[in-house]
Amino acid sequence: MHPSLRRILFLAAVSLAALAAPSTGAPGAQVKPNSSGGTPPIGSVGDLLGASQKGPRYAPGVMTSPPPGSTLPGDTVTFVWTSGVGVSEYWLRIGSTVHGGDIYNQSTGLSTSATVSGIPTDGRPIYVRLSSRINNHWARGFYQYTAFRAPDPDPTPTPGPTPTPPPPGTRYFPDQAVWYQDISNAPLDPESSQVIAYLSRVGWGTGTMRIDFSLEVLHTDGSAPFRTFERTDAFYEPDCDYTPVPVPPGGALEGESGYECVSDGDCHLIVADWSRMRLFEMWRADIRGDVFNGGCLAVWDMTRVYPDNGRGEQCTSADAAGYPIAPLLFNADEVAAGRIDHAIRFILPNASIRAGYYVHPATHAGGPRGPADAPPYGARLRLRADYPLGTLSPAAQVVARAMQRYGMLLADGGLITLTAQSDRFTTAKWSGLLGPYDLSQLTPADFQMVDGGARIPLTYDCVRNP
After folding, report:
1. Are 456 and 357 in contact (CB under 8 A)?
2. Alpha carbon separation from 37 to 28, 32, 40, 366, 462 (Å, rounded)
3. pLDDT tops 80 at residue 42
4. Where are the domains of the chain?
5. Domain at 3-146: CATH architecture
6. Coil, helix or strand for 369?
7. Do residues 395 and 463 make contact, with C-beta atoms less than 8 angstroms apart?
8. pTM greater than 0.70
9. pLDDT confidence of residue 12
10. Rounded to 5, what percent of the chain is helix, strand, coil?
11. Using alpha carbons only, what angle is made at residue 424 by residues 299 and 421, rounded to the nearest 5 degrees?
């Protein structure tokens, strides 16, 4: 609808409200007389919407999110509107018919938002009426949305072909993404010496550099069924995305044999949907039969070069630093081919990560409590160019060369320093190729910290990017 037409309809609705609006109860109830025998006047439409040079005396709330006319993101949606002028109460009515309130129909008091569950997910029109009580009359605004259309779910993933990875060399994001930038000649951070000295005192998480091979990355060509999930206390708003997730048959969570999180670990679910060019990464997933419980889900657009602050400043993802996991994992096929063309994910204990700050490309920090000379979340360490690679095994040299050219990014709190992808769905296998201790001779003193830019104070007040 053209904006000018929408405003005309809104003003008409306000005028009708001024003529026949109730003074008490829900919007639409019978008008009760005031003490003088009439109904309290609301004034003209001009009075309501902006009648003085100093600003409007009265103004109703106006819906801002989701954008009017848009498709809703799922069956649970948070509606947000502007704070009106002279408003004493808001009433939100949502229905599947023009004047219906079958989905939601209640006062929100003076709150300018409401989270509504149970919205249909079949693509039907959804009608929203936001009423603002001003001078004991109700000014109404009408909005229309399209319900999310959920793909037909498959209650239990059935056995089938294992999720097949894309062709070797396929990147998750465009070449300009920060994970693929050559930092071999990038300037050092002004605090590089202090950070490396600190890490040399405390060491890696377990004392030596080790490799974790437990993370799974699943792939789909668009044929995997989508599943909706129940949000757990590991789902944070507005940081996390609430939308159906593709669940490829025959897949598995991090550290598990299938989709059940029996170990009570991080249980990451990572799925690259190459037909839609979306990367789905979820923390603390657990699928048991027709019950899918999930923590924080981050959905990444694989066609996009994200800005320095990623999905949003102060926003987490499926990883504590707020950036994606999959593009930072090295796998057996890459190592067997002799080339890793991206930065590598690494972790440290939170006690060894600087408290109160992070640097880009991180957009968040997961409870760091280290001193001022510890590396912050988002720190990028680079293996020294003069490191004697010939002292490492051939496979370990492949990883070390990637550390020299692309570096490693501090992504999470934990003990095992490096994170590789499981070989469950790769052609090459880790056995006989690379072991968990094959890089143990690398010490913090063998690294430098690349310039991380501004130190961003940690507030946890997530502001999502469009």
Report:
1. yes
2. 20, 9, 9, 61, 51
3. no
4. 3-146, 178-464
5. Sandwich (2.60)
6. coil
7. no
8. no
9. 40
10. 15, 25, 60
11. 55
